[in-house]
Specification:
Elements (H helix, E strand, L loop, with lengths): L16 H19 L6 E7 L4 E6 L4 H14 L12 E14 L2 E12 L5 E9 L8 E2 L3 E6 L4
Antiparallel strand pairs: 1-2, 1-3, 3-4, 4-5, 5-6, 5-7
Length: 153
Amino acid sequence: MSEEIYNNEASQDEVSAELDAMVCDLIDDMLNGLADGEDLGVVLIAEDANGNRYQACFTEDGPEACLEGAQHFIEASAAGIQSDHVGPLDRYAIAYAGGVELDCEFQDAVIVSFYQRGMSMGYSAYVLYEGAGMGEDFRWCDPEPAGEEPALL
C-alpha cells in the first residue's frame, strides 16, 4: 500500500505510518480469508496511541447490521477497551467484502473505512478482487481511494 491511502487537493490529511500499517494488516487478513473461501463478515481493528490493538469480527447478522454494529462499537469504545488493555482509541479501520460499481459494472471488492485522531474526516478505500475461494488463483488489485466519511471518534 502507498504511504498515503487517500489524498486529494481539498484535504491535506496524511495517513500516519501506524494507520497505514493497521489498514494494510486488515486488508491482508481480508484478502487471505477470501482466497481461502472464508466469510469474515465485518472486521474492525482499533488501536490506542501506544499501538495496543483490538480486533473483532461481526458475523451474527446481515451485512448492514454487522457494519452498523462495528461502527457503534467504535463510537461506544472511544474511551478504550479495558478488557484488552487498549487505552482511548486513536485510530480504527473497518473492512468487509462487498462491491463497487465501476464503468456501470458491479465488481467484488474489499471496502475499508479508516480514521485517526487529528484527521479532519475519515476516509475509505477499496481493493478489487476475483476468484474468492480459489487459493493460489485468487487475484486482487492495489487499493484505490473511495471517498470521505464521517469520523466515528
